[in-house]
Prior knowledge:
The structure holds two protein chains of two kinds. Chain A has helices at residues 6-29, 37-54, 57-63, 68-88, 113-138, and strands spanning 98-103, 107-112. Chain A is mainly alpha-helical. Chain A has one domain (6-138). In chain A, a hairpin with a 3-residue loop joins strand 1 and strand 2 (107-112). Chain B is an all-alpha fold. Among the domains of chain B are: 273-321 and 330-547, no CATH class; 747-804, no CATH class. Helix content of chain B is 69%, strand content 2%. Chain B contains 33 helices and two strands. Chain B has helices spanning 2-23, 29-45, 48-52, 77-100, 108-127, 131-149, 156-187, 192-197, 199-202, 208-222, 231-234, 240-249, 254-266, 270-291, 297-321, 335-365, 381-395, 401-416, 424-427, 430-454, 472-490, 492-507, 530-547, 549-552, 565-587, 592-613, 629-647, 651-671, 675-695, 713-735, 743-749, 759-767, 769-791, and strands at 57-64, 69-75. In chain B, helix 4 (77-100) packs antiparallel against helix 12 (240-249), helix 4 (77-100) crosses helix 22 (492-507) and helix 18 packs across helix 21 (472-490). The interface between A and B is large, with 48 and 40 residues. Chain A: Belongs to the CPA3 antiporters (TC 2.A.63) subunit B family. Chain A: It is a multi-pass membrane protein. Chain A: Keywords: Cell membrane, Membrane, Transmembrane, Transmembrane helix. Chain A: InterPro entries: CPA3_antiporter_subunitB, MnhB.
Amino acid sequence: MKTNDVILQFTAKIVFFIIFFFSIHIFMAGHYTPGGGFVGGLLTSSAIVLLVLAFDLKTVRTVLPFNYTYLTATGLLLALSTAAFPMFLGEPFFTHFFDYFDLPLLGKQSLHTAMLFDGGVYLVVVGVTMTIIQTIGEDE
Amino acid sequence: MLQVLYIFIPMLAAILVPFLYKSIKNIHTGWFVLAVPATLVIIYASYIAKVAKGEVFQAELPWIPSLDISVVSYLDGLSLLFSLLITGIGSLVVLYSIFYLDKHKEKLHNFYVYLLLFMSAMLGVVQSDHLITLYFFWELTSISSFLLIGYWYTRDASRFGALKSMMITVGGGLMMLGGFILLSIMGGTYSIRELIVIAPDLVGHPLFTWSLVLLLLGAFTKSAQFPFYIWLPDAMEAPTPVSAYLHSATMVKAGLYLVARFTPIFAVSELWVWLVTGVGLLTLFWGSFFALKQTDLKGILAFSTVSQLGLIMSLLGGGAVAFHVNGAADLVFKFAAFAAIFHLINHATFKGSLFMIAGIIDHETGTRDIRKLGGLMSIMPLSFTVAAIGSFSMAGLPPFNGFLSKEMFLSAMLALNEFELFGFDTWGALFPIVAWIASIFTFIYSFYFVFRTFAGQYKPEQFPRKPHEAPIGMLISPMILAAFVVIIFFIPNLIGDTFVKPAVQAIQPFLYDSPSAIDIHVSAWHGLQPELFMTIGIVIIGVLLFVALPKWQGLYNLFPRSLTFNNAYDKIMQGLDVGLYRISRLYMTGSMRHYLLYMFSGIVAIVLGTLFVKDAFSISFEGAAPIRSYQIILIIVLVIGTATTILAKSRLTAIIGLGSVGYTVALFFVIFNAPDLALTQLVIETISVALFLLAFYHLPKLGKREERMRFQLNRAIISIAVGVMVTLIALSAHSQKLIPSISKYYKETVYSLAGGGNIVNVILVDYRGFDTLFEITVLSIAGMAILAMIKLRMNRKEKAHENK
Lengths: 140, 804
């Protein structure tokens, strides 16, 4: 059934990185321009799905040996702990903090605890999407 | 604050237990756990002297301030006594369990986590002054009890017993919650102390009787009163340390605590006096009578516990009588409450030791069946001594503490004879008679327990393993308890002054100003009173009946099983199971089409209904953007895509059609300046098409299984209704603003308050972060569910039942 699809496989290897880095950009930029953890996570998953289509699940699994259930759990934990953290400082649940910093090379940037929360969302989205695709795809 | 923290110490310690269990294998985890109750005993012991003088201690930790819910720890005589019982017996039980549960074979981390959880919950129950937190802890004890009974969860009987206890006690707990809510409606406060202060005003309230009955249902189910006692014998499937701890010394006494605590509020009611006293006495008789039918050592003890709980309950009812008599503090009615608390302490000591002995016998001989046991006296002399002390105390013989409280119990019941209200002048004579008969049966089963096990014929071939005396570590706990049984007999007034009187004052606050005002002196000999003659009668008839027991024990088999409460419970559960299964099969057909039909009709009904009722529909094209030609083209593409999806003969075409619909919608988002949505829609579409292609092989071919698509009127109506609904909503949403838009607020604050520029994303992570948090949680659960359904589904060959 599997044909040796050289052109698709060759392109996929390159495009994967383009999509992946774009997804990271989208995730990082989300607070000011369109994007965010949800879209970023979906884009990353779609990059992986592209690899799955070009090669097959087994190959992708050896290249990216992640346990996606753990990834989901990590994301959920990150999001929850970011939300719960302010309680230890006497602030209400889900209080976010942010400030602006002058970083070398990057210039003036904002650092925001919302990004940690969004990171959790990102991980959950990648984890769940890939869990679903992997389990359904592998099922005989 | 610190005082509230003490309640949670066991719960916090429970977090460490699994780590200790995994990392330190060669030391029994119980030794670490033991430190927790032992520390707490010392802490609570430091309160004794002050509380005995009548002082109370209170601390508060706000939990949900907006709803006025806080964890309040209120320590008076009653709470302190229970706290000491919980931590004291808890320490002994943990010590005992170290030798009872093997550190290599058992899942100790589970066991001790549940046990510590229970300890916190129970401390919470007896110390909470806030009704809602009291309820919270109350149910937590039911849940930890459920987990502990089901500790050996591979056994059918364990799971059955666990479920049964949970069903009954949680059901009762819910009733109690209802009672609490009614109380708070009547009194306008959740604080028990404040309710007690305004208690006289509550009596005439129409809700008063309801809250009384509901609250008693909670207490009766928890304390295994007639007819709810049926869960307690089945709870004996738990490991013996648990039975000794939860199901005799502490948890089952929570109901008694509740009755005692609420006596100042409800005692003025006639119904309260009748229900508490009557149900208590009935339970006392019923439990003692059926204890003799049991052949399992723990079964005997379970029925004996039921019966003794009934005894204490009836005494609490008798204590309520004192509220109706002028100058009760000087009359015979004063004994009941004192006897209740005194017997509660005594029962904890002797029953705890007896349970532990039953566990030892099980552990060392391999059986608990009294028909196989016998003649162990010479093999297990220490166990025999402890068992004899416990049983004789239970039977009410001197020189053991049970004798003293039994005498007081009889005095209190005789006093009811002299009570003149509520029809007690005609029925009152029944109380001492029933009490006396029940005491005879108590005497017989106490002897039955100890002599059938330790005396008689030694039958070594009956035992699964060779019997021998238990290791000394296992005997320490029951021996300590047995020592108390004897010591309390000789120093009853010291116990009375330090523990019982402060607790009595909490039950009868209107009668006494301070614990020392209670004028009761316990003595073993108080002349030739009727109580003494009753006791002598109990002993004589008891001995005679015990000797003749083999002749009449067969009578128990005459009771048809179909008339028992156990049978009723089984029938109800079975009926519910089958009936509810049938009802859900009616609509849970397994067909996705049906489910979509339900959902869509629901949505349509709600939305269109609201539109109609609120008269919210209006059309106005004011401010609408002009329609461009390329938009029309996109619309046509959209319609074609939709039609293709529905009408396609092959699934592949349908998937492509659906994909084109999605991408077109994304284009619309681009046109209407919603880059975030467009981006998300595009990626979602891509991934779902990929997913469809992956799942494609598994789906059945279209048209093969499906007969010709028939026209179905109801589906057509729903489809059209959904379309109409969406259109109407879209038009209305554009045409009018019933509520001012929140986007203005977002626009103003997005940079200053949230430090962001993209409102959509800031809404997701900040403004409405809760939504997102819950959404990713749901997403994760869905992911795990799919994984579980596909990966972990059982092979057809495997049995669906996970029993060994």
